Amino acid sequence: QRPLVEVRDLKMHFPIHSGLLRRQTGAVKAVDGVTFDIYEGETLGLVGESGCGKSTCGRAVLRLYDLTSGEVVVDGRAIGTESQGSLRRMRTTMQMVFQDPQACLNPRMTVGAIIGEPLDEHTDWPRKKKRARVEELMDQVGLNRAFLNRYPHEFSGGQRQRIGIARALALKPKFIVCDEPIAALDVSIQAQVVNLLEELQDELGLTYLFISHDLSMVRHIADRVAVMYLGKVVELAPRDALYDEPLHPYTEALLSAVPEPDPAMAGRKRERIVLKGDVPSPANPPAGCNFCTRCPKVMEVCHRIDPAFREVRPGHFAACHLNDPRYGPEHSESAEPT
Ligand code: SF4
Ligand code: MG
């Protein structure tokens, strides 16, 4: 299976300017060296607390920002170096579904015009053909075509997210970044939208990067999961391996906070791990492992050396010295490198 998306050591640093002369005095390292692949037809979940850099990462992968460094290849093309013109053409391949459909649906445009806007921008189809495509899209996302001439405010939150999805699908993309697509919706509606995304994926062969802070939902939808903390992916694994046998202490802590939905399983529930302190500022991450200020398993080496992102088991990557035979629990003093 080939990756549709390849991300290599991606960095997104935003300069901080201060003082009278607005000199650059530092940088917010929102994404600080992230590497992953997304295979064709799969859903990669990207999880982490707010502010960890997951949204910035998703936007950078679509080149909504200029990359600070690193490489992003989508469908065989290095998008970090593409010109604006060819990026515009690539927008047909890659699209985004946003958290808050409200914010990206023009209240003065009809639903038909909103869904058809990408066709106006990227095709010279005649009106009739565009209209037929818009109606087809409305069918695909479960919106009544009779509502074509209505305005966004006449719809519920769930229906507005369907409008956003239809618009994202208009140009038949292969790859969609879904940034917290259900976070703004009522819990009762969330499952419907997630099911729709899954149906569309099967039907259209879509590839998703699914960004969410909701670990239960990600377990439901993702094939593999990447966990971000302070600008870095600290663990990446096939879904069940990540949830059942996490290798990184941060993942363990996140999972320990997920409520166990099945009461029969409650006895097996992990003990809740409460992390001390706050997430450090991405403008000033700690030396060594970026989790060392809060990690319950921190060791001396963690303050000195940034752990490599290693494939610990086949397909299961983690950035933690505990998984390194030189430093982990099995190491003997003599194995310590000098
Ligand atoms: Fe914790 Fe050290 Fe592993 Fe970082 S490298 S997660 S501080 S044990
Ligand atoms: Mg976000």
Automatic annotation (TrEMBL):
It is found in: Cell inner membrane. Residues 323-334 have a biased composition (Basic and acidic residues). Residues 5-255 form the ABC transporter domain. GO terms for cellular component: plasma membrane. Its main location: membrane. Pfam families: ABC_tran, oligo_HPY. CDD domains: ABC_NikE_OppD_transporters. SUPFAM superfamilies: P-loop containing nucleoside triphosphate hydrolases. GO terms for molecular function: ATP binding; ATP hydrolysis activity. It is a peripheral membrane protein. One of its GO terms (biological process) is transmembrane transport. InterPro entries: AAA+_ATPase, ABC_transp_ATP-bind, ABC_transporter-like_ATP-bd, ABC_transporter-like_CS, Oligopep_ABC_C, P-loop_NTPase. Keywords: ATP-binding, Nucleotide-binding, Transport. Belongs to the ABC transporter superfamily. This is Stage 0 sporulation protein KE. It comes from Jannaschia seosinensis.
